[in-house]
Amino acid sequence: MGAVERLAEPPRVCVFGAGAIGGQIAVRLAQTGAAVCVVARGTHLAGIQAHGLVLRMPGQAEIRARLPASDAPLTLGPQDVVVFSVKARDLRESLDAAAPLLTDATRAVFAMNGLPWWFLHGLPVQRTPELAACLDSAHTWRIPKDRWIACVVHLGGQTIAPGVVAGTTPGENALCLGYPDGHLDEPIEQIASIARKGGYGVAVSTTIRSQLWAKLLVNAGIAAVATICERTVHATCADPETRNLVIHVMAEILETGRALGIELDADPEQMTRPDRAPEHEPSFLQDLRAGRALEIDNGILAVRALARALGVPVPGIETLATLLKARSTNVHGDRGGTAT
To answer: Which tens digits make up the pLDDT trace of 282-307?
Structure first.
């Protein structure tokens, strides 16, 4: 691999998991001239096949993308880029299923919540059994590590009908891309360029680990409290008591990051200002109300496990993680969390 390596023109892009977030990405990339296809299933797949994949945004005309869609990746052929937008617990199965999409040059973009399996590589922390349960490292052999691209997603969404997704944070529409080791190359710049043409604010980071940790301030902070309270992000931040709880938990996440050597320039007071908070229902809360297990193993449970391994006191996170795990277990048996 070298700086002269490029994606095909037009690039072949498959979004594996065209739900609330993946669906938005697929529709927007399809508007750029890229050859986009999606892997979906069930009634959502049937809706896409029947009338295309539709994106609705508040105050904007809907966008409809008619694109190849299948639950059998073999029918879609090799791809230059595969964007995985799936739950962490489904990643192993998804990587196996995606094998027909991958070539020796395919870039795998992981547009997923939480910490990835490689996050602990090179960090000064003891790998405890609790951490191992939160961050499954069994995925690493499937795709060479110089082709993993982390994608930190700054937008919200919801699947509102078969084949129809809605953006719920119209004022926030950004992606941050980066390789685990911080290197840069032509393909990642091309992917960023395509996403920008699709209407995203896109940054390419040489310190993607810090960007992933910063996203936890939202997922393990604001979204976690909003889910326990069953409120939107705005309602959570507009209530002084729940806002104070979020700020306290964010401070604990920042302190745990410092113990890992991750320094963030983040201000929880500013991040939780009610006038900036969207009327967005976090994906955790969407899952809770739909009776699905919460995607917390590689999020707040991983933060708790890291804090314990590092000896950082995090009483707010301890309490919030316990409550979220209990709620998840109540709605979906023992699949709500693998760490204790």
So the answer is: 999 999 999 989 999 999 999 999 99
